[in-house]
Amino acid sequence: MHSILLTGGAGFIGSHLTRLFVNKYPNYKIVNLDKLTYAGNLENLTDIEHLPNYTFVKGDITDLELLRKLFKEHQFTAVLHCAAESHVDRSITDPLAFVTTNVLGTSSLLLAAKEYWAGKYEGKIFYHISTDEVYGSLGEEGFFTEDTAYDPRSPYSASKASSDHMVRAFYHTYQMPVKLSNCSNNYGPYHFPEKLIPLCIHNIINNKPLPIYGKGENVRDWLFVEDHARAIDVIFHKGKIGETYNIGGHNEWTNIALVKELCRQMDEKLGREEGTSEKLITYVKDRAGHDLRYAIDATKLKDELGWMPSLQFEEGISKTIDWYLQNKKWLDDVTSGNYQKYYEAQYEKR
Ligand code: NAD
Ligand code: TYD
C-alpha cells in the first residue's frame, strides 16, 4: 500500500506512468501534481481520470508551501518525480526556466519529503526520474554505464544533472531513501509534437517539411515509453535504495535513418507512393552544442532486476504511428493549443 505523489503526470512519460500505476495498483493512492505547462495535457489521462485511486492537483513543484500541505493531507509514502522542463531546444532559449523547475523544484520536493517523513524512512521511497543526457556526448563507440562521469552539455542536461546531485546529496546527508534512473530517448503515444518523432509524424501527415538539424548524423538510443514505465515500476518495487539504474533500448539510430524509416512506414500506412514523404526532408541549421551520440548500457537493470525492452523498434514505431493516425483530435488539439482549455472545462467549472 502506497500513497504516491507523482509529479508531472500530465506530461508524456508521466501520463504513461500514471496510467500504469493507477491501473496496476488499485490499492495505491496516486496524486498527480502538475503545473500544466505547455507540455502538460490532461487529455493524456481521460481514460483513468475517473478512477477512485487517482487525484489531480494543479500546482508547481517549486511551491514548498503547497508541497507541505499535500504531504500532510495525503500522507505520502512515496514520490515518483517526473515533472521537469524537458526540451533541449527550449533550454537553449530559456535556461532559467530549467534551473527553476528542475533544480529548485526537485530540491523543494526533497525538502518537503524530508520534513514530512522526519527520519521515519521505513517503507518510504523518493524516486527521481532522470535522463542519460547527464552523461554528456559519446563518440562513435562506447556506452553510458551507471559509473560514467557526469558531463552535461546543454542547459537541460546540466539542470537534470544538478537535480540528480541534489537527490544523492539528500541520500548521503539525511539518509533519504532515494532511487534514481537515467533513461535514453523515449517515443510513443502522447509525445508532444515538438520533439523529433511526433513532429515528423505530424508533418508527414500534413505534407510539411521535416527539419533535420545539421547532417542528421547524431545518434539517439530510442525506447518505447511503456517499456520505460515498466522499468520504473520494477525499480520502484525491487530496486535498491540509494542506487541508480540506467534504462535503454540498445536501439541506436542516426536521426536521418530514423526519419527515413518513419517516412517509409507512413507512405505505406497512408497509401502514398514509396519515396513521397522522404521528399519532405529538409536539412536546417544545427542545434547549438548538439550532442553527437547517446547510448545506454542497461546491463545492471537486466542482471539485477530482470528488465528488458519488450518491443523491437520497427514494431514500436509502427504502433506509435498508428496511434497518431487514430488520434488526430489529440494531435489537432495539441497543435492548435486547444488542449489547454481542457483543464478549464474539466476542473475549474466544478
Ligand atoms: P514532458 O515535458 O512531456 O512533461 C513534463 C511534465 O511536467 C508536464 O506535464 C509539465 O506540465 C510538468 N511540469 C513542468 N514544470 C513543472 C513544475 N514546475 N511543477 C509541476 N509540474 C511541472 O516531459 P517527459 O518527456 O514526459 O519527461 C518526464 C521526465 O522524464 C523528465 O524528468 C525528463 O527529464 C525525463 N526523461 C525524459 C526522456 C524523454 O525522452 N522524453 C528520457 C529520459 C528521461
Ligand atoms: P529531441 O526529440 O529534441 O530529443 P533530445 O534532443 O533530447 O535527444 O531530438 C532528438 C534528435 O533529433 C536530436 O539529435 C535533435 C534532432 N532533431 C532534429 O534533427 N530536428 C528537429 O526538429 C528536432 C526537434 C530534433
Notes on the protein architecture:
By secondary structure, this protein is α/β, with parallel strands linked by helices. It has a domain at 3-185 and 224-247: NAD(P)-binding Rossmann-like Domain (Rossmann fold, 3-Layer(aba) Sandwich), CATH 3.40.50. It contains twelve helices and twelve strands. The strands form three sheets. The chain has a seven-stranded parallel β-sheet with strand order 3-2-1-4-5-6-10, with helices on both faces. It has a three-stranded mixed β-sheet with strand order 7-9-11. Strands 8-12 form a two-stranded parallel ribbon. Helix 4 runs parallel beside helix 5 (155-174). The relative contact order is 0.13. The model has no long low-confidence stretch (mean pLDDT 96). The protein binds nicotinamide-adenine-dinucleotide and thymidine-5'-diphosphate (TYD). Thymidine-5'-diphosphate binds at residues 88, 185, 195-196, 199, 211-213, 218, 220, 255, 287.
Question: What is the fold's blueprint, element by element?
Answer:
Elements: E1 3-7, H1 12-24, E2 29-34, E3 54-58, H2 64-74, E4 78-81, H3 88-93, H4 95-117, E5 125-131, H5 155-174, E6 178-183, E7 185-187, H6 196-205, E8 210-213, E9 219-224, H7 225-238, E10 244-247, E11 252-254, H8 255-270, E12 281-284, H9 299-305, H10 313-326, H11 328-336, H12 341-348
Parallel strand pairs: 1-2, 1-4, 2-3, 4-5, 5-6, 6-10, 7-9, 8-12
Antiparallel strand pairs: 9-11
Helix pairs in contact: 1-7, 2-4, 4-5, 6-8, 8-10
The structure holds nicotinamide-adenine-dinucleotide (NAD) and thymidine-5'-diphosphate (TYD).
Nicotinamide-adenine-dinucleotide binds at residues 7-8, 10-14, 34-37, 39-40, 60-62, 82-86, 101, 105, 129, 131, 160, 183, 185-186, 192.
